[in-house]
């Protein structure tokens, strides 16, 4: 790799080589060869190293083992497999390193003269100070510095037994017990997976929140499902955290009206969200307007910060911390930085989020809370419970609730929130039709096979059509009636 030159000047400087930074580089490269792609840490995206992929590698054996517990319900004879924690973690790390290797190969395929191995911070709107003692000035700058785990100071009392999800995927073996704090995406996925792999697990949440859900009925369904499987203190009160010779001693009330309980765990896993790495680049040295979090004000349809030559993309903006969103934002920032001052707005894809718990949680398009907060938006709701859904009952995965939302004036499908079997697939179908601005009536004209879980979606849409005043009442107790019903 060629060393960076002192006081080097480039057309575009990109700070960060995660998903959004790589996307920005590829797009900007179409327009200019004067680029500095700056990275002070390790190459490899958050998704590949400590996010999407390693977590799914832990979830896969957990779900497989859990499903064997249903053998007797199907009339089958068998035993729940014993867990070889070292073997589980060996596969997690091996495959994780493989995914990271693919990312590193991508970076290595970039023009080496563009790569700068150093941390960067702002001197002013156009100049960056590098940790290697050099500086770079740039006509345009893209901030793609990502995020890191957010750790409340209260947890520091756990001492060396305090970990984040970044640490989990470096384990050589599974622990005996763990307390997981945070009932968001990371906490739900890792907490349930570790429980299913035989680790004594308690999940602590706040205010009965469950992942990204905002619909009270779907939240209630999710709480019942998870609490029925493992200790989930969704509104618990933690009184103390103490590092002892045995591990981490936690004294808490499972709910405000319960008596105090004291339990000891091997580790405390802080899954309490992520913090944007905006505080490490001296953003205050720029003239950009910042919000209360210190993040530059920007247009999500162009990724431009104010009217400036600076753009921001990915987890660092704290908007939607998902890989596909980071990739889209990176490409958009790269295109507009290269074209500056001719900055164009691009329509964004329908919001789509999936939590790989079991049952899976998914959100599509407009959320229940956003529709309630939106002035002048009169919407109706349709729902289906998976408890009685035909295909779900056949497979003994009949848990959960799907709620879909439609505009009362136009009949357009607006969004959905759900927890249910294989909802990653339902969520994609819904995201596609929401993005196409289809009405509920139009979606119901699409084919639905029998018997499949997707028929549950049809039931919810029929219910929504009726509640919109645009269709008759759905057939009762038809176990997902066939075509023409």
Automatic annotation (TrEMBL):
UniProt KW keywords = FAD, Flavoprotein, NAD, Nucleotide-binding, Oxidoreductase
Q: Where is the FAD/NAD(P)-binding domain?
A: 11-330
Cofactor(s) the record lists: FAD
Q: Which InterPro entries match?
A: FAD/NAD-bd_sf, FAD/NAD-binding_dom, FAD/NAD-linked_Rdtase_dimer_sf, Mn/Fe_SOD_N_sf, Pyr_nuc-diS_OxRdtase, Pyr_nucl-diS_OxRdtase_dimer
Residues that bind NAD(+)? 182-189, 273
How the cofactor is bound: the record states: Binds 1 FAD per subunit.
As recorded in UniProt, its EC number(s) are 1.8.1.4
Q: Which cysteines are joined by disulfide bonds?
A: 47-52
Q: Which residues make up the binding site for FAD?
A: 56, 145-147, 315
Positions of the catalytic residues: 450
Q: Which GO terms describe its molecular function?
A: dihydrolipoyl dehydrogenase (NADH) activity; flavin adenine dinucleotide binding; NAD(P)H dehydrogenase (quinone) activity
**Annotated ranges, domain Pyridine nucleotide-disulphide oxidoreductase dimerisation:** 353-460
| NCBIfam families reported for this sequence | PRK06292.1-1
Give the family per the record.
Belongs to the class-I pyridine nucleotide-disulfide oxidoreductase family.
Provide the protein name: Dihydrolipoyl dehydrogenase
């Amino acid at each position: 790799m060629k060393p960076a030159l002192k006081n080097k000047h480039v057309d575009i400087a990109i700070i960060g080589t995660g998903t959004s930074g790589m996307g920005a580089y590829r797009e900007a490269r179409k327009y200019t060869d004067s680029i500095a792609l700056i990275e002070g840490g390790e190459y490899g995206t958050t998704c590949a190293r400590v996010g999407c992929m390693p977590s799914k590698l832990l979830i896969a054996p957990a779900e497989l083992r859990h499903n064997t517990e249903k053998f007797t319900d199907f009339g089958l004879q068998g035993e729940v497999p014993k867990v070889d924690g070292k073997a589980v973690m060996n596969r997690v790390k091996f495959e994780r390193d493989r995914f990271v290797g693919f990312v590193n190969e991508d970076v290595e395929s970039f023009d080496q003269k563009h790569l700068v191995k150093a941390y960067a911070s702002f001197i002013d709107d156009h100049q960056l100070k590098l940790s290697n003692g050099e500086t770079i000035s740039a006509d345009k700058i893209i901030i793609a510095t990502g995020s890191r785990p957010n750790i409340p100071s209260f947890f520091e009392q756990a001492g060396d037994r305090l970990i984040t999800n970044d640490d989990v995927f470096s384990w050589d073996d599974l622990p005996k017990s763990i307390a997981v704090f945070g009932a968001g995406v990371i906490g739900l996925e890792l907490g349930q997976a570790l429980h299913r792999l035989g680790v004594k697990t308690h999940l602590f949440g706040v205010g009965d929140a469950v992942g990204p859900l905002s619909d009270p009925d779907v939240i209630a369904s999710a709480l019942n499902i998870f609490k029925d499987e493992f200790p989930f203190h969704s509104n618990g009160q933690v009184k103390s955290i103490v590092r002892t010779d045995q591990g981490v001693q936690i004294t808490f009330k499972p709910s405000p009206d319960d008596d105090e309980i004291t339990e000891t765990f091997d580790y405390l896993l802080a899954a309490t969200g992520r913090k944007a790495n905006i505080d490490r680049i001296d953003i205050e040295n720029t003239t950009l307007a910042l919000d209360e979090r210190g993040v530059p004000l920007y247009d999500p349809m162009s990724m431009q910060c104010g009217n400036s030559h600076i753009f921001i993309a990915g987890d660092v903006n704290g908007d939607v911390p998902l890989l596909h969103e980071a990739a889209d934002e990176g490409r958009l920032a790269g295109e507009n930085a290269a074209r500056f001052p001719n900055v164009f707005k691009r329509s964004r894809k329908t919001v789509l989020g999936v939590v790989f718990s079991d049952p899976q949680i998914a959100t599509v398009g407009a959320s229940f809370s956003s529709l309630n907060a939106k002035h002048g938006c009169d919407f109706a709701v349709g729902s289906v419970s998976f408890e009685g859904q035909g295909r779900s009952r056949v497979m003994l995965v009949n848990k959960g609730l799907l709620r879909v939302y439609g505009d009362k004036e136009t009949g357009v499908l607006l969004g959905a929130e759900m927890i249910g079997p294989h909802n990653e697939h339902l969520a994609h179908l819904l995201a596609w039709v929401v993005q196409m601005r289809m009405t509920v009536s139009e979606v119901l004209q699409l084919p639905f096979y029998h018997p499949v879980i997707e028929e549950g979606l049809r039931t919810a849409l029929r219910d929504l059509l009726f509640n919109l005043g645009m269709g008759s009442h759905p057939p009762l107790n038809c176990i997902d009636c066939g075509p023409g019903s």
